[in-house]
Amino acid sequence: MKKFNLMLILVALLVSNPITTKAQTNPNTHAIKLAHKLIKQKHFAGTITLVKNGQIIAQISNGYQNYQTKVKNTATTPYMIGSVSKAITAQLIALLAQNKKLALTDRLATYYPNLPGASKVTLAELLNHRSGLDTSYFSLHKHYDSYQTYLTDLVHQAKIDPQNINSWHYSSYNYNLLAGIITQVSGQSYATFLKQAITTPLGIHLDLMQATALKSYSYLRGGFFSQTDYNPYNNYGAGQVAMNGRDLYYLLAAFLQSKLLAPNLTATLYNKPPTAAFPYYSAGFYHLQSGVYHLHGTQLGDETSVTISPDGQQAVLVQSNVTAYTKGGVNYTFDLPLFAALNK
What we know:
Beta-lactamase; 7-stranded antiparallel β-sheet
């Protein structure tokens, strides 16, 4: 009788804690245990997604998607992915190139003839933040009632610095302009073309410029303060996307595995010149010297950091909605050691 009762207790404990059960039976126990350890040590709030051989082996969540109502973060919580969404805009540009609607070698002046110096820059240079785009006099602290009014003001104030063409300079404005080109060439809104060309074919979901159940927070003097976006248009094409870990993984893997593009165009899009220094940025992805790809984005209180193999088979996705609370930060601090543990 005692043995029978003990067995029932053990079964109940296993069923009530599926993540622990997975860690005990999964060959990648070390990575899962390390994720739990980092979450506890660094006060992490969000979701960590671990992928091995193309399969999600664990999704571990902590903290709250709403601290006021105490609704917890879960595997299905959508997080703002910030600049990681640049990979989406790049893919849309490449899809238009594949359909002969434009070419990556097109000059920026084809689409923005009034932007000074635009005839000297290609779309590929915008994709890789090597356009020489100078926006030093442009202010984000204006109110815009539409993306088009924002874009018109950006083009009016921006210029191309010829001395910086083909030199690395990270600027989200490159992707704002690319989003505008997508609407010009497709004849559709960015959101409509995105749905038609990417999310529907892949069977995934994302929120674009819409309120989600998630709230983003800053952490100050022992309290959590909800954040709001003062200008919803200034990140269009370079942010404003919310996704859960599962859908984000399948999206990025699909890009790397040529699920939407011909393999030769995928290779062109993510090409790193042999002599280029590390890290090298191409179409949303950083090439690291270790041979893996990295993506990173912040928006409001959210932060997403991803390490993924070039074939999309191994990945760690770390998403947080209150990064100011996390000791030591999120970027590289979680994903790189977890990726190493996952692939031991």
